[in-house]
Amino acid sequence: MQIKRLSDIHLRDPFVLTDKNEKKYYLYGTLGVNVWEGPAIGFDVYVSSDLQEWTGPIPAFRPEPDFWADHHFWAPEVYLWGGRYYMFASFKVEGRCRGTGILTAESPEGPFHSMGLPLTPPDWECLDGTLFVDENGAPWMVFCREWLQVEDGEMYAIRLQEDLTGTVGEPVLLFRASEAPWTTGFGESGENYVTDGPFLYRLPSGELIMLWSSHGDLGYALGIARSQSGQIAGPWTHDPLPLFAKDGGHGMLFQTFSGQSMLTIHAPNDAPNERPVLFRAVEDGGRLTIEKRD
What we know:
mainly beta; Tachylectin-2, Chain A; five-stranded antiparallel beta sheet; four-stranded antiparallel beta sheet; Glycosyl hydrolase family 43; Glyco_hydro_43; glycosidase; GH43_arabinanases
């Protein structure tokens, strides 16, 4: 087992789970080594007590021989729910649409085991599912429908069963990528817009926001959407400028043991140079700003 700094860890789509009881941070992410090509290895986790030095990699998930997917294992997020740990992650196999499924384990280090096929619609190309718990304590999954299928990438929410084994009702469309002022299209006529990496967060002011990523004027970027009702259905509006504008994104917020809010993203966005990066996050009257952590 090695001790590493974040600059030594080749991960995309970083996610940090804070364990206040054990006083440990757990870092997950898409393994950069075969993110685009070849059979996927699985997911690793790194463990730290100070956000400076990380022990790992620890194999958190390795697919069983009968696992349904074999490549594009992306964006793992881990949550404690009902006394167990659940990993939301995206997977792909030839002949089946990409989807977000859920894995479970007794420990944040794993080993995580599949709970079955994806919970996203089987005929939709989807990715980047994230857990949201509403004001009534009900679990939801927010996920992206890919531009590859709809051109203008879409953001959806779907209610989950209490034990996270299935869904309740139909997906609810929250917004399309082109609705944000800061996003830019691509393709021959600029009709393609990306939705990536949603993460929902309630600010100390009580406002419900969503971090999500797309392409902006300076490359891959991270923006903020805001629910005008404070509930998952929205309606959602978008800040005019991205929170992080140049060549980095797929972010999430977490709290340190001392209560400091932190943002993590991967930057830059080009392989094989992606690394997890940490920023201090400050909320003031609904405005979120970030400061690079030393």
